[in-house]
Amino acid sequence: MKKILKEFLISASLFFSIFYVTLQVDWMKLFHLQPTIVGDKLSEWVWKMAESSLWKVNNHDVCAPIDSLVYEMCKANDISMADVHIIVNRDNEVNAYATVGNHLIINTALIKKMENESQLCAVIAHEMAHLRLGHIKSAVRQQAVITVLFTLISGNGHSEVLANLTSKIISNSITRAKENEADEHGAHYMHAMHINPMEMASTLEKFESYGILSYLMDHADSKKRAAHIRKMHFPDNGPYRKILSQETWEKLKRACQ
Ligand SMILES: [Zn+2]
What we know:
Number of domains: 1
Number of strands: 3
Strand content: 5-15%
Bound molecules: zinc ion
Low-confidence stretches: none
Shape: elongated
Distance between the termini: 54 Å
Largest sheet: 3 strands, mixed
Mean pLDDT: 83
Radius of gyration: 20 Å
């Protein structure tokens, strides 16, 4: 029995040592790999695995208003619509997240929870900032190495396991500093489209218990992040506006039930 335990402990510590060392090495630099080509290939591969676990919503009442919000955000901030791929995913978890291949996933349960379009814009703006700031791309490098390592060690190549692992590694790679950066840039995106940027702060406060707008499940952090946004200065840019009509907003909410 003691022998089995000893062997188990040795194997486990060996696994975690390799895991830790793998995270510390810049593999791209080591093998003189081109970040864009390799990054794109890895993203494609990882996305194929992750996509299979989504239930995409194609309902016009859902897609049209989301597209309108994203279109206005992109137009006001000089972002090409072709650079952001929005997917509404039918899922009971209140969540939205940026992921590989410039994909931004919004769960129907999150839309259902939002009280107005400004809150929804805050979520989209924060996630879009993660994509624009390259936070996800840098996480992909780490996750790819670890996914390959995991497959080699465990011999388990099942896509669901790998997809779960992938989202976990992205979570681990998004630091507190990156969350703050995404809040700040997101608030600027909102301001540029004439939506009150302080809605970023109130959305953080209001939905802190759901852990949205954060890859870090640290709820105490939401208050600090909201306070940081409230201290930011935005030049007055006229009256704030509404993009969707009340009828369209209500249809969107109903379709997400
Ligand atoms: Zn975030």
